[in-house]
């Protein structure tokens, strides 16, 4: 195996390990960030449905989209105001009026720092046990069926000596 092949395979393996580690840290809460899938269009066009919002825990400001708990569910809307009584006023970008609920500011999880489009759909699919099992079986099948490199097809170059 050539040095270039070893380096390529090592780098590919490192990238896979880093992606898995990053996903693990994000999904288990080991970082100051967490992610939520957007299921409705209340924040469109800023954050379309099927996006994954990346939320920095505890860091937010008025005017920023934030994720918070309201009526037992996580909601992502724009923070309009922090009221004097300690509650918050929020509004979905696609909504005409502010939200009817006013949860306490302590219910804010954090501010949205990124919202990659369609990534929520990918995360949703990857969280399904059938998908994980299918991907695992696919990797095993490819590994078992991948042909070994043929060494009998190497051409020997002869040099003539004068």
Defining key terms:
162 residues, alpha+beta, Umud Fragment, subunit A, 3 helices
Explain this structure to me?
The chain has a 6-stranded antiparallel β-sheet with strand order 1-2-6-3-4-5. It has a domain of 107 residues: Umud Fragment, subunit A, CATH 2.10.109. The chain has 162 residues and is an alpha+beta fold. The longest helix is centred in the first third of the chain and has 26 residues.
> For this structure, what is the CATH class of the domain at 32-138?
Mainly Beta
Number of strands: 6
The CATH topology of the domain at 32-138:
Umud Fragment, subunit A
Strand order of the largest sheet: 1-2-6-3-4-5
Weakly predicted, low-confidence segments: none
Task: Write a concise synopsis of the structure shown.
With 162 residues, the chain is α+β, with helices and mostly antiparallel strands.
């Amino acid at each position: 195996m050539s040095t270039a092949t070893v380096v390529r395979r090592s780098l590919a393996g490192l990238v896979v390990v880093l992606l898995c580690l990053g996903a693990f840290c994000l999904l288990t809460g080991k970082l100051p960030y967490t992610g939520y899938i957007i299921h409705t269009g209340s924040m469109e066009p800023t954050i379309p449905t099927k996006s994954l919002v990346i939320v920095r825990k505890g860091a937010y400001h008025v005017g920023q989209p934030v994720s918070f708990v309201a009526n037992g569910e996580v909601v992502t809307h724009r923070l309009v105001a922090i009221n004097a009584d300690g509650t918050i006023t929020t509004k979905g970008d696609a909504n005409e009026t502010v939200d009817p609920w006013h949860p306490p500011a302590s219910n804010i999880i954090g501010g949205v720092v990124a919202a990659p489009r369609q990534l929520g759909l990918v995360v949703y699919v990857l969280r399904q046990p059938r998908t994980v099992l299918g991907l695992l079986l696919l990797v095993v099948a490819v590994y078992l069926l991948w042909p070994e490199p043929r060494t009998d097809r190497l051409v020997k170059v002869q040099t003539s000596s004068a």
